[in-house]
Specification:
Elements (H helix, E strand, L loop, with lengths): L1 H12 L12 E11 L2 E10 L3 E9 L3 E8 L3 H23 L18 E8 L3 E8 L9 E9 L2 E7 L6 H12 L3 H9 L7 E3 L2 E3 L10 E5 L3 E9 L8 E11 L4 E8 L4 E6 L2 H4 L1 H11 L3 E12 L2
Antiparallel strand pairs: 1-2, 1-16, 2-3, 3-6, 4-5, 5-8, 6-7, 7-12, 8-11, 9-10, 11-14, 12-13, 13-16, 14-15
Helix pairs in contact: 2-4
Length: 309
């Protein structure tokens, strides 16, 4: 990117410039509105000499949402929980007869775990931009090379449950399972083969964090500051009152990082954990490796521009 800018500057310097053309004060102002892969672009622009233009504005990306139902595969757990409830009732009868403290069944969601969860995925990528257009042929041609940067939120993709607090029964079960220290209850749990509810994904155990109050949120993050390099035709401030501009380039937003809620059985802690493709294994690992290859974001924009000064 640096080499391209230097080359353009050298080419511009070879032109025969008058003393007036050598001034670096902004010569005129313009505004533009466009559409493309960055959304709806609105910006202000100016030219500095005949060889440079500067643009600053915002790219408003409409939120793209996708809905899907996920099978939580809790049928077996519900069957075992119903059996567990019956066995704990029998156990409580014996404990009460012996004058011992009984087990609080309210801590256990007896066979009421949800089987299906409606989730929504959202892509949002609204950014600001600061761009410098370099016109190597000066007034003779509108071809330009562009350097600059886009910057905005680093969280571009999120996945979450559509119904607020939907996973509270699973949180209640996992908490009860982890806090069941009574030997009699542990025996019943082990006899039924009960475990925490979640999904093994390689070295990770995916399960909702109780601190999120029955909600789950997975997301992908990229760099908030994204250098840009591109080429195009047209001037940000047109010679006439109205003009157009075309841009083609890439944002360098870095390798996307994927975060999901996990539980570490060794340390007994919940966290939103960045997932490593090599540790995820199976199909999940393949998907993550594919995602990691998208380290740039393509930019293709067409703008209508107008000169106001």
């Amino acid at each position: 990117m640096k080499n391209l800018l230097i080359a353009c500057l050298m080419l511009a310097g070879m032109q025969n410039m008058s003393a007036q053309e050598a001034t670096w004060a902004p010569k005129n102002l313009g505004v533009g509105i466009g559409v493309g892969t960055t959304g709806i672009a609105i910006d202000a622009s100016t030219t500095i000499h005949n060889y440079f233009g500067v643009r600053f504005g915002v790219d408003i990306m409409p939120k793209i949402k996708v809905n899907k139902d996920i099978n939580l595969k809790t049928e077996r757990a519900n069957k075992q929980l119903s059996q567990l409830t019956g066995e704990i009732n029998d156990l409580n009868t014996k404990l009460a007869a012996a004058g011992m403290e009984t087990v609080d069944l309210n801590r256990y969601p007896g066979g009421n775990l949800p089987n299906q969860m409606a989730v929504q995925g959202k892509f949002s990528n609204t950014t600001w931009h600061f761009l410098i257009d370099v016109y190597p042929f000066g007034k003779a041609h509108s071809f330009h090379a562009t350097v600059g940067a886009y910057f905005g939120s680093s969280e571009v993709i999120t996945l979450y449950n559509r119904e607020e607090g939907f996973l509270k029964p699973i949180n209640a079960y996992n908490n009860a399972y982890l806090s069941a220290t009574d030997p009699n209850v542990r025996t019943v749990i082990e006899q039924n083969g009960l475990t925490m509810i979640g999904a093994d994904m390689g070295d990770y155990f995916v399960t909702p964090n109780p601190a999120q109050n029955g909600n789950v949120n997975a997301y992908a993050k990229v760099n908030g500051f994204r250098p840009y390099l591109g080429v195009g035709f047209g001037r940000a401030v047109p010679k006439n009152r109205i003009g157009c501009q075309f841009d083609l380039g890439v944002q360098f937003w870095g390798k996307p990082d994927v975060y999901i809620p996990t539980y570490n059985k060794a340390t007994g802690t919940y966290q939103d954990e960045k997932i490593d493709a090599d540790r995820a294994g199976g199909d999940a690992g393949k998907v993550l490796k594919t995602i990691s290859k998208f380290s740039v974001y393509p930019v293709l924009n067409f703008r209508l521009v107008g000169r106001i000064l």
